[in-house]
Structures
1.
Amino acid sequence: MISQALNDQITRIGPNTDAGNVLRQYWQPAALSDELTGGFPVAVNLLGERLALVRSGDGALQLKTRIVPQGEPAAHCPAAQEITLDPTGATYPAHEIKGAVFAYMGPGDPPEFPNFDCFRAPDSHVFAFKGLWRCNWLQALEIGIDPAHASFLHRFMEDEDPSDGYGKQFRDKAAYTDMPMMQVLREYPRPEIQVDETDYGLKITALRHMENDLTHVRVTNQIFPEAICIPMSREMTITQWHVPIDDENCYWFTIFTSFNNPVNKDLMRDQRLKEHRLPDYAPLKNRENNYHYDPAEQETLTYTGMGLDINVHDQWAVEGMGAIQDRRQEHLGRSDVAIIRYRRMLRKAIADLAAARPEDLPMQGRADVAAILGPLSNDAIAPTAEWQSASHAADIARRAECPWDASV
């Protein structure tokens, strides 16, 4: 349990707030490249500010403050002709890369982009998408750094054919076996969780100890300040930012990265547009329609009764906590170790900024950002005594077969 004052400090992100100041030290996803096809300006609501993406006279992308009509909701996406720029407002630099536009809203010059796999891979091997969640960014992030929740929230009572699982999370076979990933999560629901601090944030290792002295190793990552990198399958990883629109709404921005084969972008887009509406990328299943909850499905097929798209499960869980989770009432346990470590990291970053030490933040002044590669994000099955070396070897083998430079 924490105090209301501390909960406010780590959740609220408007201008001149403690957590907001930390997030403004980093590049933030602001829009998808797909959203630029209708011309400029493009409305963007980010970090509690109402903005518009424009091109300057030299063609550079920028974010500028826009004048907001009274009563406009946070997630509203006005058409270009409705946007009026504020001539006295702020201007922020923006940069388009790998299907997304990132903006820097902090002081001074923007930091370097790290050399994560999602930025190193060729355009043919990445795909970007986003989705709207009506809750605070922090609870959206924290579900992504909880390895244990997948065994329950995303539990399927029947396993799909992995060959039909392209573009879907947890549908692949576990490591190099014929055992569906969903079966591993279902049959071994209480992982041992280890958390290590890294130069980019946290490395989170979930160990599911199996029969015959074998261990399933799943490595995920928290990329500071509000991203995760997790394995989607042996072929793909997901790098996902949980980006505040304001204190009570956020977008998840994801760049899917393929190691071997080019991404089937049309299929990936079609899969996700069946679950989201345009232009605001709001999910079609939501609080208003009870997330399409089906008790018959819950009895026989899924833990939630809300369909096979695990994004909906996560959305229901985080939105169900309220607009801003009341952490005065929570009781964290052993499986919440990554959440505990992340909050400590965030509070340290807040303290470092307050003490005028921005160089002490992860991936800031004291870091060689260009040398931060990867991160390792995969699953493997190995003899229990050899799980560390086996996980690393599986990652190196995948990278060695890659047609682009994925070396680490």
2.
Amino acid sequence: MRTTVGIIGAGPAGLLLARLLRGAGIDSVVLEARDRAYVEQRQRAGILEQGTVDVLRAAGAGARMDREGLRHDGIELRFDRRRHRVDFPALTGGRSVMVYAQTEVCKDLIALQLAEGGPLLFEAEALAVEGAVTARPRVRFRHQGREDVLECDYVAGCDGFWGVARGAVPAGMGQVFERTYPFGWLGILADVPPSHDELVYARHDRGFALLSMRSPAVSRLYLQVPEGTAPEEWSDEAVWQELERRFETADDWTLRRGDITQKSVTPMRSYVHEPMRYGRLFLAGDAAHIVPPAGAKGLNLAVGDVVVLARALAHEKETGSAALLDDYSATCLRRVWQAERFSYDMTTLLHRAPDATSFEDRLQLARLERLTSSRAAETELAEAYTGFPLA
């Protein structure tokens, strides 16, 4: 099998890259290790930055998002039983975010790829990337019980943190920057309308809590829990009681309860692999970087990566110049590190470390006081939350 760009992974990064390349007249093949049902059901991010929304619309993948997604013009910060709303459009010149689950983004892009795009092979497990520094890299993969080879001009590794793409970069040819956190997020899906019409980020002495949603009828909520916590350690009643404690306010606001349909724990880490390119292999999304979820940046960083890569490949096709491809890693990493910084800031602002001192507690509260009393500080948060420039 032969193509111009071999794409490993049919998550949002790989699927959107294939869509953008099709628009530029560049052929591709997408290899996905899982079956279609798994890809369309795996729960991940749900907040789309303004730039991500704009890209999906421009790619012809925004129709259902615009019908069913929930535009949010702000978030609420809670601490000391107080509530403060951050108004995104007023602080950013009109920018907002969209609540639209990654599962739905994948469904939309898969449908478009199967109807209009190049080959998308499910249950096609990439085994290795070979010859990345040659003019003809290859992806060895297993599909329908036999091994095959995809010959390409370029390989895009969009196969996540545990995929094979990053493993093709030899030891010593890259540098890793990493931080792990001594806590995670216990997340639940509940069949109950959200208790607030925008996301609520709560800092509490018992730990962080987040009120989010998947639809007008389904709530998504999170609790900070110790690292290594198992979901079954928390009964449904204990989850609701703890959420009520951490979201408590001085007014008459109440948390709605409902049937919990899913419960999981997400570990917290920051990770960056530099560079994001090795020869003709380009890493994108979680294959190159991980952010803690408090900043809502993971999916949006992946979109930024593939926008830069698609533009660079189109430029090379149109002009013969590889200048933008040569700049791919540096261009992406400028945005990646800003997102890492913002995600770290949000994590340390709102989560209480297990060994936190009273001094550190007061510093957190002082930072929140500054955010809620200074338009300049509030603007910085709003600009970062709604999205850094894609290039």
